[in-house]
Amino acid sequence: MNRRQLLGAGATLVASGAWAQTSNMGLPEAPIATDAKTQKPLVPQSGPDYNPVVTLNGWTLPYRMNGNIKEFHLVAEPVERELAEGMIAYLWGYNGQSIGPTIEAVEGDRVRIFVTNKLPEHTTVHWHGMILPSGMDGVGGLSQKHIPPGKTFVYEFDLVKSGTFMYHPHADEMVQMAMGMMGLFIVHPKNPAFMRVDRDFCFLLNAYDIDPGTYMPRVMQMTDFNLWTWNSRVFPGIDPLVVNKGDRVRVRVGNLTMTNHPIHMHGYDFEVTGTDGGWVRPEARWPEVSIDIPVGAMRAYEFDAKYPGDWAIHCHKSHHTMNAMGHDVPTFIGADKSRLTKLIQKHQPEYMPMGTAGMADMGEMSMEIPANTVPMMTGWGPHGPIEMGGMFSVVKVREGIAADDYADPGWYENPPGTEAYEWTGPVPDPVISDSGETVLTPNPAAMRRP
C-alpha cells in the first residue's frame, strides 16, 4: 500500500461539513520532499496568473482543484533534515521536511487544507496573520479541538487579502515549534500586475539547540540557541539567491525564533514593501540596507538588481553567523599557551591550540570534530575561507541568467581594477597630533614624529 492509499484508508475527516463536500474525491495527494536543495518555483497551470515564489532550500506544495476550491494536504510528522553537509537533525515537520512546504494561492481563492497528524501527540495548525473565521484559526482548546495522532482535520476559508503569512502549531507550541514545525503561506494579489517582481524569494528564520555530536533539539531551551537557521539550514548549507542583472527582486523573511534579527544585504539599498499587516504604499516606503525582523513577524523588501557580483546577506548579530561549536569556547586572546601546548602534545600529538590571536584560524583548520556537527566557522570562497556559519548566504547577481534558472552560477570574477589588493610600496611612519582638536588638513609644523 502506498502512502496515498494508506492516508486515504486510515485517516478520519473530523470536520463533517467538509467531508460532505469532499468524500466523492477522497483525500488529495500528500506529496513529500526529502531533498534539501532549493526547488524550482511551482508555476500555476490554471487560474489567475502569478509569479511563484522560490523557497530557499525548500519547495511549494502542489494542490488539486475540487470545483472552485484549491485543496492541499499537509502531513505533520517526524522528519530528518540535513542542516548542512555532515549534520542531520531529527525534527518534526510537514510532508517530509522542516520547514514545511510553502503554500501558494491567490487573493480571493477558497482553500481547503487537510492536515493529517502522524506525530506522537496532538497538534493543530494556526494560519499566522491571516483573516479567517475564528473556528479556523487553529488554537487548540480555544478555537478547535486538537487533532489527535492518526486523525485528519480540515481547514477551509477564503483568502481575503494578499501578502506573506506563516503557519505553525498552536498546540504544545513550545515543543512543536522548537522541533521545526512551521512553514510559509504566500497569497498572491488578484491583479497580477500589482506588486509584480521578476524574482520572489522567501525563507523563515528558525533556531535550534543541538549539542555537537547529537541529533535531537533541546526543546526546553529558551534563549541560548546554538544553531541559527534559514529554513532549517545553516551556512554553508544555505543555497544562494540567484538573480539576473536588471531583475526586480523581492525577498520575504519571516521570524519564528525567540529573538529579533537585523537582516543585512551587502551592495544594495532596498525598499521595505511589506509587513505582516499588508503591502506598504509607495509613499510610505523607506530605504534600508538592514531590516530588523521582530519575533513572530515578517518583512518583505525589494531592490533592482543593478550591480553584478556576489553580495553577502546575513543576520547582523555576529553570534548568529556561527555554528554550534562556537558557543562554549572560552576567550584566550593574548594568552601564551606555548608551554602548555608542548606538554599536551607529548600525550596528544594532534592537539592544536586556538584562540590566542582571535578565531580566524578556525576557518582554515581541518581539525577533527564530533560526528554529526559542522564547524563553528566554515565555508570556502574564491579567495579563501569565508569564516561564517548560521544565518548567512550570498545574493549572486549575473548577466544572462534565464528567467527560470536558479542554479548556482559559481563565484563572481571581479573585473580588473575593482578588487582590493595588497600595497607593496613604502609605508610612512605614523604621526601624532599634539592638539586635541580635529585637524582636517594636518599642519607639518604642529606634528611630531614619535
Structure at a glance:
The chain is mostly beta strands. The chain has helices at 3-10, 16-22, 173-178, 338-347; strands at residues 54-55, 64-66, 69-84, 87-94, 103-106, 110-117, 126-128, 152-158, 163-168, 183-188, 199-208, 227-230, 241-244, 248-255, 261-265, 270-275, 278-279, 287-288, 290-293, 298-304, 309-315, 378-381, 384-388, 392-398, 432-433, 447-448.
Describe it for me?
The chain has 450 residues and is mainly β. The protein has a domain at 26-188. The chain is 7% helix and 32% strand. It has 4 helices and 26 strands. Strands 1, 11, 12, 14, 16, 17, 18 and 20 form an 8-stranded mixed sheet that branches. Strands 2, 3, 4, 6 and 8 form a 5-stranded mixed sheet that branches. Strand 22 (378-381) and strand 23 (384-388) form a beta hairpin. The radius of gyration is 26 Å and the shape is globular. The termini are far apart.
Strand content: 25-35%
Rounded mean pLDDT is 87
Distance between the termini: 84 Å
As a percent range, the share of helical residues equals: under 10%
Give the strand tally.
Answer: 26
Spell the H/E element sequence. HHEEEEEEEEEHEEEEEEEEEEEEHEEEEE
Task: Categorize the overall geometry.
Answer: globular
The total count of helices amounts to 4
Radius of gyration: 26 Å
Largest sheet: 8 strands, mixed
Poorly predicted regions: 1-23
Judged by helices, strands and strand pairing, the structural class is mainly beta
